[in-house]
Amino acid sequence: MGLISLLFSNPVLFIILAVVLLYSIILHEVAHGWVAHLFGDDTALHYGRLTLNPAPHLDPIGALMLFLVGFGWARPVPVNYSSFSNTRFGLFCVALAGCLTNIVIAVTALILLQFSLFNSNSVLSATLPIVIKINIILGAFNLIPIPPLDGSKILMSFLPYRAQEGLSRLEPYGFFILVLLLFTGLLNPAITFMENLIYGGIGFLFSFFR
Fold first, then answer.
1. Which one from 29, 165, 171, 195 is the annotated catalytic residue?
2. Average pLDDT, stretch 162-175?
3. Is-contact 78 43, C-beta < 8 A?
4. What CA–CA distance (Å, rounded) separates 196 from 168?
5. Annotation says 29 is catalytic
6. What does the buried/exposed string (b/e) look like for 102-141 if buried means 16 or more CB atoms within 10 Å of the residue's CB?
7. Are 145 and 87 in contact, with CB atoms under 8 Å apart?
8. Closest residue by Cα to residue 204 from 102, 71, 103
9. DSSP 3-state of 50
10. How does pLDDT run across 2-59, given as a tens digit for each residue?
11. Which of 39, 90, 111, 183 sits most deeply, having the most CB atoms within 10 A of its CB?
12. What's the CA gap between 142 and 194, in Å, rounded?
């Protein structure tokens, strides 16, 4: 998406986007930790990760990727799933929380855009579509069931124990698998499918307000 170019062409827009998009990935991780806390796991709280202070969350490479290619990541929030009283349901909710957070951010930006609250402000009207697009990409990408993405944990919550073990063994190689699939374009149909699913859901939601 090449957002870095905005730093030179429109520095004000770049700063606004930098703050909003960095917090999009930070809130994604905080949501994981917060839901885990609701299920009785205080690991994220113990490590100081239930905070909006960006310092404990930021991954320099993940933040750079956000502005270079349109999606990125923060440092994963530590979660001890064995402390959950209902492990499967807890795993499902914690994994889904991050993706839902990005979708909520996208919907909020879309509502602001739909109701033309900021049409008189060229900076904000230019910012909102980018915020919508990137948060939908973040939500869609993370729903793909390849470790360590959230989609793999959502899938694990439905799998028998042996299948969970088999899928979790892929996690050390997950990053390389994702890079290979991204650069070969093989992951594009999955991302497009997830994006269309999210856009369809948002469109269905807005149909009630017309």
1. 29
2. 90
3. yes
4. 28
5. yes
6. bbebbbebbebbeeeeeeeeeebebbbebbbebbbbbbbb
7. no
8. 103
9. coil
10. 577 777 888 888 888 888 999 999 999 999 999 999 999 999 999 999 999 999 999 9
11. 90
12. 9
Coil, helix or strand at residue 53:
coil
Residue in the structure block whose two tokens are 């100081």:
48
Tell me the mean pLDDT in the region 73-99.
94
Query: pTM for the whole thing?
Result: 0.88
- Phi first, then psi, for residue 81 (nearest 5°) are -65, -25
Dihedral sign of CA atoms 80, 83, 87, 89 in order: negative
Asked whether the beta carbons of 125 and 118 are under 8 A apart, the reply is yes
- What is the identity of the amino acid at 91? L
Geometric angle at alpha carbon 179, from 92 and 43, rounded to 5°: 35
- The enclosing H or E element of 20 equals helix 11-38
Tell me the two tokens of residue 93: 């909710």
**Alpha-carbon distance 157 to 97, whole Å?**
14
- pLDDT tens across 95-146, in order? 999 999 999 999 888 888 777 555 566 677 788 888 988 898 888 889 989 9
Alpha carbon of residue 164 to chain centroid = 22
Residue type, 166: G
Q: Where are the domains of the chain?
A: 3-207
The closest alpha carbon to 1, from 47, 103, 70, belongs to: 70
